[in-house]
Amino acid sequence: MLATSSIKGTSHSRTLFFHDKNITSLDACREEIQRGYINQWRYYNPPSGRSISAGESINFRCAYSHTTPQRWIRSAPYSFTYMVQIQQNTLNLVPQINYADCMRNTNSSQQDFCTASSQKVNL
């Protein structure tokens, strides 16, 4: 699961990546998100609505991936930049040197987006 926060009126986003061995299908992931909307997460523990700032929103997405993210640590800096590509429900992450370069390389006609993350993802 991806939890992507964005600030209204900007193209900047931050993403947290979640993986749990108990979530083995997109339907199970979507069910977990639905449980999260009523604050009853079972497997994932993303930031709550109280921990985001004004003008910021969080979007949850499910996707298959062959990569494993490092565990999310709340206080870790967002020092990794990725181009996120989701095609046919499959996540592809492309490491980027920095956010500006990523924005220049993003194809705005597709669903690709740039994001900062505090997690290193083993590709």
Output the keywords:
15% helix; three-stranded antiparallel beta sheet; 8 strands; alpha+beta
Biggest sheet overview: 3 strands, antiparallel
Strand content: 25-35%
Tell me the number of strands.
8
* Adjacency order of strands in the biggest sheet: 2-1-3
Could you give the topology of this structure?
Elements: E1 2-7, E2 13-17, H1 26-37, E3 56-61, E4 68-69, E5 80-87, E6 90-96, H2 99-105, E7 113-117, E8 121-122
Antiparallel strand pairs: 1-2, 1-3, 4-8, 5-6, 5-7
Overview in brief:
This protein is an alpha+beta fold.
How would you portray this structure in words?
With about 120 residues, this protein is of the alpha+beta class. The protein has one domain (about 1-120). The chain has two helices and eight strands, in the order E-E-H-E-E-E-E-H-E-E. The chain has a three-stranded antiparallel beta sheet with strand order 2-1-3, covered by helices on one side. A hairpin with a 2-residue loop joins strand 5 (about 80-85) and strand 6. The longest helix is centred in the first third of the chain and has 12 residues, at about 25-35. The two termini are about 15 Å apart.
